[in-house]
């Protein structure tokens, strides 16, 4: 019998399936046993366990009844709602685990300040905006802000990574949360640039077609010098661990850095924005 290995960290959907399998096996049930208790086919159970089928609300509630989880804090219904309205894209939870032990982090962002550099106030404004749009719930907004704070704390270790940040000029010009929030965020960028293990650069609008990326990109170098790339669009994230495909992305990042403003010029631009002289 072929048994598909599960990676619960790859997405909320995968975590749902892995937990379903774990609880089933802990009780000594086969997929046929669980299917009978839930009113679904064993094929359906298998598809959910391996992530090939997205669980539904009725399926989740049926699983809660089968495992005696109704009314508890660890229901499958709760997990279903996180999948349906979750604020983390597929691949991102796994990426964050690697980020916490990377020796080099390279970030490129368009439109908003990279998460690792955001102030709590700036992050809260973005999360609350997503709530108003109906994209996430207020509880998920709180989780998003707390999750970001933990990511930032993970970088404050004894031997912190080298962090390279190249931001499109739109990141510092786009007003988020009003003058006070934005001013504090710009101050944070200047403080970040002054750290011994960082490099901050702005990719100005004048780059035009020489800008090498049109979407946000994160590149990690791990202790063994292997590379990981995470890139995302509005609705999808992708984690790539294949060196042959990540290496060209790293080359494009270096090309962007060569075209971007120096750190001194970038900090000067940020200070001019704060003073209203740019």
Written overview of the protein:
This protein has 278 residues and is α/β, with parallel strands linked by helices. It has 2 domains: 12-85, lambda repressor-like DNA-binding domains (434 Repressor (Amino-terminal Domain), Orthogonal Bundle), CATH 1.10.260.40; 92-275, Endonuclease, Chain A. 51% of the residues lie in helices and 12% in strands. The protein has helices at residues 12-26, 31-38, 42-49, 57-67, 76-85, 92-99, 120-132, 138-154, 169-173, 178-193, 243-259, 263-275; strands at 104-109, 162-168, 198-203, 217-221, 227-232, 237-240. It has a 6-stranded mixed β-sheet, with helices on both faces. α2 (31-38) crosses α3. The longest helix is centred in the middle third of the chain and has 17 residues, at 138-154. It is elongated and about 70 Å long. The N and C termini lie far apart (66 Å). The relative contact order is 0.11.
């Amino acid at each position: 019998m072929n048994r598909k290995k599960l990676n619960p960290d790859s997405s909320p959907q995968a975590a749902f399936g892995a937990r379903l399998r774990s609880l089933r096996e802990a009780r000594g049930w086969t997929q046929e046993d669980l299917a009978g208790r839930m009113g679904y086919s064993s094929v359906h159970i298998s598809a959910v366990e391996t992530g090939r089928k997205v669980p539904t609300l009725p399926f989740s509630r049926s699983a809660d009844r089968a495992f005696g989880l109704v009314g508890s804090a660890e229901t499958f219904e709760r997990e279903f709602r996180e999948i349906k309205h979750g604020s983390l894209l597929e691949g991102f939870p796994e990426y964050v685990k690697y980020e916490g032990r990377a020796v080099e982090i390279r970030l490129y962002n368009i439109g908003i300040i990279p998460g690792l550099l955001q102030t709590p106030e700036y992050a809260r404004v973005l999360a609350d905006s997503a709530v108003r749009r109906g994209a996430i719930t207020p509880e998920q907004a709180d989780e998003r802000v707390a999750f970001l704070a933990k990511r930032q704390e993970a970088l404050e270790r004894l031997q912190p990574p080298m962090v390279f940040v190249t931001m499109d000029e739109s990141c510092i010009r786009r007003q988020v949360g009003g003058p006070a929030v934005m001013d504090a965020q710009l101050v944070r960028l200047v403080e970040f640039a002054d750290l011994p293990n960082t490099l901050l650069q702005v990719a100005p609008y004048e780059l035009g077609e020489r800008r090498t990326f049109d979407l946000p990109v994160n590149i990690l170098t791990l202790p063994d010098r292997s590379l990981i790339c995470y890139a995302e669009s509005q609705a999808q994230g992708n984690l790539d661990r294949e060196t042959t495909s990540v290496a060209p992305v790293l080359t494009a990042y270096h090309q962007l850095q060569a075209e971007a403003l120096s750190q001194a010029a970038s900090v000067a631009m940020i200070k001019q924005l704060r003073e209203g002289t740019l």
